[in-house]
């Protein structure tokens, strides 16, 4: 990650920590609404890679605040949601790893049991896949100047892939946490409930699958590969 | 395990031109093979095709030119490999030699081994197989019992390998053997490069459940090879093998080997598919696109000299699951009789039957998940 983006992320963490209790005001004041606005127009001149990084943090720290709406135009909200989801899934994984390494049963940390290890490996694959989808979508949006029409394929594929990961990730995270993860107090639900919500927002699985499926059908079998490699 | 950062896939030179050149070459040189062979690209043996591909410079691309290679960037090779797989070209004969054995000889081999084997590999004429598994050593590879004893004349090898893909057409085997008497587990193992026409070697076919002869049993009965057959450092076989395996799990073959089925499904669906079929195509495409991003990123990380062991395992795990699920999901949605003679039906049948092997070969699903769990800090 570039030094400028590291700094941006540090700022986001500090501001979002404040916003977690104070609401949107600190985020507005810090100028996150200007992230994508060109420097010439008095903005930050950031790219979608920056948005992706900031929204992954927002997905963990302030999943209930409308940060994505502040930063990105409506037409790219599906892409913004993928970043929020990638962040929240990374957090669900991190919480799960921490939990199984500390919680002891049968005289050992849960993470020493092979069944638990294999479940978390499955979850990690899903999380990595969504992180990769978010990053690749960001790269495409940057290559086409944030034009949602030129990134339609990637947006559909990434949102669909993220949606499909929600079930696996939330199920395994809760399973390895046991009852503590089902409490209002424990922080896991602060990412799993938003994940469930984001799956239906800005296009559920059926919506994107039908859209992508029709687009690909028009390309034909050979055409799909040609289109993929031409982008 | 840190969060995933996408490594930019940025091969030198003009990638679009490289693709175009290869596609034009394939249009002329790819045999109009059967559709089922196309879905089984890296297991399809075609010596003429391999020779032509080697002559055209598409095998051993990353090997040094002084050994007949192309001295190309690993990501240029990646582009060529994904094109060959997507086209379903019959790359099975030279596949292992090109992917694994050649690079390993460059890295660990002696000068004599390089001169002896690499030019043939790059020409697409010299084929290799991998001798790891034994009857008592499957997932538990450290249980290898085949021995090689150092004598005045050379290494004397006794034992048995099993499940050796392509041993029946290969010229050489890269074998993991126990060279140190009394050693146990992963200590005392070494890699030997064995010419398969050496007296004392018996190769017996094992027919798989699809009726194909791909893998074999290989018996070593007092086989004598020169001391120069040792690859790399004596006693370091385990380390050399794990590096080799870890690095070869992320290639495009982990999600593109059944691409012919996806293409056939799309073609059969036509431009205006019904809702269920469109949904299935959308879901499969999203998964395939994501896998391609993961695989390219892992290849780029590898090319940058890093060790993406965990990412490579993620690609294999997700890629295997994708390729195993695809025929099952197509079968569930598309109304196609079991004995349908059309392309889609034949592909479906062949891949349903072949798919159990996907999460066995190259490290089982459970072993791969164990590697990922270790990367997460759980083991
Ligand atoms: C098509 C095909 C091609 C192959 N080609 C080659 C080749 O060219 N060269 C070569 O050397 N080998 C080859 N193999 C062999 C392959 O590497 C082995 O099949 C694999 O390592 C598993 O070993 P096994 O079959 O003995 O199964 P086993 O080790 O007996 O395992 C059976 C099942 O038990 C599970 N299991 C085992 N141990 C554990 C554990 N500790 N915890 C949890 N689960 C466990 C496994 O994951 C698996 O699901 C090939 C296999 C196939 C199917």
CATH architecture of chain A: Up-down Bundle
Q: Give the radius of gyration of chain B.
A: 21 Å
Total domain count of chain A: 1
CATH T-level fold name of chain A = Butyryl-CoA Dehydrogenase, subunit A, domain 3
Average predicted confidence as pLDDT of chain B: 95
SSE order of chain A in H/E notation? HHHHHEEHHHHH
Widest sheet of chain A: strand order? 1-2
- Tell me the strand percentage band of chain A: under 5%
Oligomer: heterodimer
* Helix count from the secondary structure assignment of chain A: 10
Note poorly predicted spans of chain B. Answer: none
**Overall 3D form of chain B:** globular
Descriptive account of the structure:
The complex is a heterodimer of chains A (231) and B (379). Chain A has 231 residues and is mainly alpha-helical. Chain A has a single domain, classed as Butyryl-CoA Dehydrogenase, subunit A, domain 3. Chain A has helices spanning 3-22, 25-29, 48-61, 67-71, 77-102, 114-143, 152-177, 189-200, 205-219, 221-230, and strands spanning 104-105, 108-109. In chain A, helix 6 runs antiparallel to helix 7 (152-177). The longest helix of chain A has 30 residues, at 114-143. Chain A is globular. Chain B is an alpha+beta fold and 379 residues long. The mean pLDDT of chain B is 95. The two termini of chain B are 12 Å apart. In chain B, the strands form two sheets. A four-stranded mixed sheet of chain B has the order 1-4-5-8, covered by helices on one side. A four-stranded antiparallel sheet of chain B has the order 2-3-7-6, with no helix packed on it. The longest helix of chain B has 29 residues, at 275-303. The interface between A and B is large, with 55 and 56 residues. The structure holds flavin-adenine dinucleotide.
